[in-house]
Amino acid sequence: MRLQNAALGAAGLAAFLALGEAVPRLGLVREEYFPPTSRIASAFADELSDGAFWTALGDTLTGWALGLAIAVSAGIVIGVVVSVVPYLREATASTIEFLRPIPSVALIPLAVLLYGSELRSVLLLVVYASFWQVLIQTLYGVQDVDPVAEETARSYGLGTWARIRHVLWPTALPYVMTGVRLAAAVALILAITGELVIGAPGLGARIAVAQNSQAVPEMYALIVVTGILGLLINVGARTVERRALAWHQSVRGEVAV
Amino acid sequence: MRRLLVTLAAGALLVTASACGSSGDSGASDPGSSSGGTTTVKLGLIPIVDVAPVYLGQKKGFYGKRGLKLEISTASGGAAIVPGVASGQFQFGFSNVTSLLIAQSSGVPVKAVSNGIASTGVAGKDFAAIAVKKGSSVKSAKDLEGKKVAINTLKNINESAVRESVRKDGGDPDKVKFVELAFDQMPAALDSGQVDAACAVEPALATIKSQGGQVIASPLVDVAKDTTVAMYFTSTRYQQQNADVVKKFQEATAESLAYADAHPDEARQIITTYTKIPASVLAQVTLPKWPAEPNKESIEALAKLGEEDGFFKKTPDVDALLP
């Protein structure tokens, strides 16, 4: 089953790459603006042998990881506190709904004003965008706590901390993990967008330079890199999720089938 | 209560973000930090052909011998540089003249310190041009009436210049339909017919020409003879507090500009170190002029055009802007 899936996936990718080679070769679009797969591949190989590319990749991953870490910790802590403290949720609900849909990219002028074109500007965007994913999921997760379990824990004399640890957290964890997985992808998108628009060092800035330079195959090669990165991050996040929730019904069920 | 919470949440986010960010860099946040006789200044640039002289000057040691260490930050557009300089993130920046005039007229405290680039002054052989697709019916600037023209930023220097070209050719610039499009997308947009003409600069212009595109006007040449297009600038506050650093930067940049202007091959060579312009394209690129001094009349002409076209909140003070 798994082998068949992998084979299908590979076949899909091969068909896509072949299409990418054929479309410009057949003259459906001009090669100058959409180079065939083989030319992108050779530009990709050139990138891999360039030290500056690896530095840029490192910068992007640093921005992604730091931003995600801040967003996840802040999202979980604030989410739990807001849910646990009575009235705090009502008091913040409309504020959260007001702030959440603001696109992070709209904050670019603010980021530049505060931090110029460096890592911190990118972090601001990444944290803003991915924080809400985690926060909202944490809020939903906490809401899902079984009131009977909660009351039982209370009547057995468990304190606030023990109730958070043994009742609230196991219930909320699957939600939180979904939030983290979504946040991981959003953080990557925002890290690269931030670099692309602001010019902070990283893959995004390298794409911007390639665009300004009319270096079309190099630009697509870098875009392919961001795609691969997204794929790896998604696979990684799913693995982490499966490990953390190995005890949970949803994951156990999946394995049993 | 709610407002307090919002403020607290926003504040907490900003603090965590800044705390994490600053652990990575080595105290570079101190503006113009000096150690052992060298002053480190941050310069905000767009990684394009225009700024080759500072890269060359840095390599040649023109800044170093004056005790300046340049730390170049690249931004992908001029729009990020002006606020960066005004807020002290960068000590110096590079921006086109109209953007500086717009900033100055809206009360942003900027001060030009050195020349940046100038047009070649030769019609048809400038680094910026209005170009059309091969075989287009548009033959001159006047024909742009009712046509779609791509420019990189609306209500900025290139719109001023294109409007002036149309005006000088006897056309009505108000009848031109301007579309905002990044320079790098202009060749493809022109080729596929999404726009009828594009006001492009190098290296996009070289790409357009290599595909048979025709140059119909040189807008920056139409503005004035030898138009000053962009300049290096600082904030008025930094200039007042660090007049000696500004003076050193001014001298070093003037020397770099003169050197780059006299050694175009070396300028072309240095461009390959901070851009990805393919060698075949770079050989075709028309370099701008890099005079050491700005041309005041051309800046006044741009101020006048910008005012006619309604770009400014109030009349900009050219004398206060210039060094």
UniProtKB/TrEMBL annotation, chain B:
Signal sequence residues: 1-19
Keywords: Signal
Superkingdom, natural source: Bacteria
Cellular compartments per GO CC: periplasmic space
Limits of the SsuA/THI5-like domain: 50-267
Pfam families: NMT1
Primary subcellular site in the record, as a coarse category: periplasm
Cellular compartment(s): Periplasm
Family, similarity comment: Belongs to the bacterial solute-binding protein SsuA/TauA family.
Protein name: NitT/TauT family transport system substrate-binding protein
